[in-house]
Amino acid sequence: MRFVSKIELVLLFLLPIICVFLFGVFGYDLTDNSYMRGYAYSMLNGKKLYQDLFSRLPPGGFLLQKWFYGIVGEFYPIFINRLLFYFNNALMSLLMLLVIKKHRLMNKKINWTLLFVLLYFISINNYPVSMGYAHVSLALGAISFFLGLLNMFTTSGVILGLALCTKQTFAGLFFLIPIYIYLKKLHWNAYVKFILSALITSAVIFYSFQSELVHFYKMSLRHTFGAIFRSGFKTYFHFSSLAEVAAALSIFALLRYSKINKNIRRLAYAAIFSVFIFMTKNYFKSGIYFALHDTYKILFLLSVLFLGNDLLGFFKKKELPDLRTSVFFILVLLCWISGLSDSATGPVYFAPLLVICLYYLTENRSDQNQIIKELLIFTSLIYVAMNLNSYRDGSRLKMNKHLGDIDQRYSFIYTNERKFEKVMELINLHKKYGRIIVLPTFSDANFLLRQVNCLPTVWDVATGLSTPRESLILKMKNSIAQCSKDHTFLIEKGVTQRFTLYTPIVLKTFQKVGETNYFEIYQR
Q1: Contact in structure between 53 and 47 (CB atoms under 8 Å)
Q2: Cβ 495 vs Cβ 399: under 8 Å
Q3: Burial of 4 by CB count in 10 Å (0-12 exposed, 13-18 middle, 19+ buried)?
Q4: Tell me, what DSSP letter sits at residue 20?
């Protein structure tokens, strides 16, 4: 802990508190953000994972969510969930800083406290403000990884074991620390400590679900390999990404091979500015969360190009890379592995590392370093400004409806008028019709209404399942028939049904008995 200053320790706790009130209290996503909460609530009320509830995800994330909502109960669970989100990002940023300090990955003249703040503000923009399954597994994997780089191998392995049981596409994290141990030429007992602790932890968790694992494998394996191909390879080199590849190659050529004079510097700035043009294009099209993807892919490809150029030099000399280059090799691998996900294709989750990688890989190369320093300052201002918009909710400035007025569990959470009206309409329909099922994407409905979903999923999104389609649809038809005895079905208006399985069955089988501003009502 000698690498941590007092001000950095204070910021570790202060930054999350500041940001949760500045940014985290705004926004209410009805779909992805509350997906795990719906499953956790069903499990707390007696449903069994992989038998009563379908999912292609491993059990670790569900267990953590179940424990969290079981412990917090009625005490502001949504707000505390978001506070934990900001704290986890602060912890990951601090661990990144420790790794940078320990391995001397940046110039000592840098103000470490300001770098910590920059890493933090970059990281909090990269996911919805919630401890969802992707962020839980990411946080666990990252904490394990950075502890490993700090030579705390047993603790690293235990935490990674839990991470491996949370999101299967992050399994590649298991190989990063052994690579680090090899490159650093540490004693063999470091391998033993890490590998055994990780394997034992994951084995204990999976063993507790042994009778249900056959269902998990049926739902998971086919999707897992498809997701790795789509997000690990295809996303970087399909037709629409050619502009990103071209931008990365142009910037690399300018920074690596050209003598820096005034004209070349102007070209370099123009090329770097093109990164933000890509981001702006998607910002107006899809919002900030998806707008960042283009930027991160370009930064990732730039890091790969610079790192590959350096590794080629070591390869020609027939020697292992030095420790700093080895650590950056592992960091770039971490960025790639963390992007093996259909929910966030590309190296979205570790954008701060990409900024640091780019800084290091261009450092000491003439006065090109000045360009990167100025880019870092400009980027930090951009990221702070981006927090004015929240994931899938638009501008935070327009959110003045307090969900705590509806339910104490949602205290301190504000949304816009349209979503507030939708929630109120749902509650009124629940009072009128009794037990209801909301389709296709309102995954928070059961938690909000304090009822257990009688269907085997909390939302109707087929991409979340990989069971053979015919048997899955048959199970759904049976569950719908069972639920229809005492439930009313509500179909959300204006929500795409492209990936739905339940909703077409309801539309064909049941009769429409009415509609409201936000829902169509179906009964037997």
Answers
A1: yes
A2: no
A3: middle
A4: I
Q: How far apart are CA 295 and CA 351, in angstroms?
A: 9
Q: Which of 123, 60, 35, 61 is nearest to 86 (CA)?
A: 123
Q: Which of 25, 248, 241, 57 is nearest to 136 (CA)?
A: 57
Q: How far apart are CA 212 and CA 193, in angstroms?
A: 30
Whether 56 and 220 have beta carbons less than 8 Å apart is answered as yes
Q: Which pLDDT belongs to residue 518?
A: 92
Joined tokens for residue 448? 């909000």
Residue with tokens 């091979």: 257
What does the pLDDT read at residue 366?
A: 47
Per DSSP, the residues of 250-302 read HHHHHHHHS---HHHHHHHHHHHHHHHHHHHHHHHHH-HHHHHHHHHHHHHHH
Q: Token pair 């034992």 is at which residue?
A: 200
Report how far residue 418's alpha carbon sits from residue 430's, in angstroms, rounded to the nearest whole number. 19
Paired tokens of 89: 């990002």
DSSP category for residue 26: B
Q: What's the chain's length in residues? A: 524
Distance CA 504, CA 520 (A): 13
Q: Which of 42, 52, 55, 49 is nearest to 210 (CA)?
A: 49
Quote the CA–CA distance of 412 and 408 in Å, as a whole number: 9
Q: Is the pTM of this model over 0.85?
A: no
Give the three-class secondary structure for 493: coil
Paired tokens of 492: 């959300």
- Taking the C-alpha atoms of residue 338 and residue 162, their distance in angstroms, rounded to an integer, is 15
Q: Is the pLDDT of residue 201 over 80?
A: yes
Question: Would you say 236 and 216 are in contact if contact means Cβ atoms under 8 Å apart?
Answer: no
Residue 231 is classified by DSSP as I
Q: Calculate ∠ Cα 89-136-116, nearest 5°.
A: 10
Q: Which amino acid is at 509?
A: T
In what helix (H) or strand (E) does residue 513 lie, and over which residues does it extend?
A: strand 511-515
The helix/strand/coil state of 50 is coil
Helices (H), 53-152: 59-72, 77-102, 112-123, 133-149
474 exposed, middle or buried (CB, 10 Å; 0-12, 13-18, 19+)?
Answer: exposed
Among 384, 411, 387, 389, smallest CA distance to 399 is for: 389
Q: What is the mean pLDDT of the chain?
A: 77
- Are the C-beta atoms of residues 119 and 101 closer than 8 Å to each other? no
**84/89 Cα distance (integer angstroms):** 9
Q: How confident is the model at residue 239 (pLDDT cuts 50, 70, 90)?
A: low
* Cα of 436 vs its chain's centroid, Å: 31
Q: What is the DSSP letter of 211?
A: G
Strands 436-439 and 488-492: what pairing?
A: parallel
Report which of 54, 8, 28, 128 is spatially closest to residue 471, judged by C-alpha positions: 54
- Per the DSSP assignment, residues forming a β-bridge with 53 are 49
pLDDT, tens digit (0-9, with 9 covering 90-100), for 23-43? 888 888 877 778 888 888 888
Fill in the amino acid letter for 92.
M
SS3 content of the chain, % helix, strand, coil (to 5): 70, 5, 25
